[in-house]
Fold:
Amino acid sequence: MHPGVRWWWSKSRKPIQRVVHVCVKGNAWSPAAINFRDYLRQFPDKRMQYMQQKRQLSESSTSSVAIYSLKKAALLYRLNGEANAWRDAINRS
Structure:
């Protein structure tokens, strides 16, 4: 977890389970989260890959949000690295 960031998960999966991230403006976590969001908006194939993995994990990790999060971490870190490289390339141009 990140200091100063709170997560809330809905208990119900009907119609869809939700996660809400809340932090104060200027929190150190915010730029990375916004960069990741922008990257997924720019690259629909990466967004689809992320969505499909999350869906698959949620179906196979029904008993624990923690298990789901741990399994999702590898893809998340890889995509975050790609998002950071994308942002850096934009900043250099």
Notes: Strands lie at 5-9, 19-23. The longest strand covers residues 5-9. The radius of gyration is 14 Å.
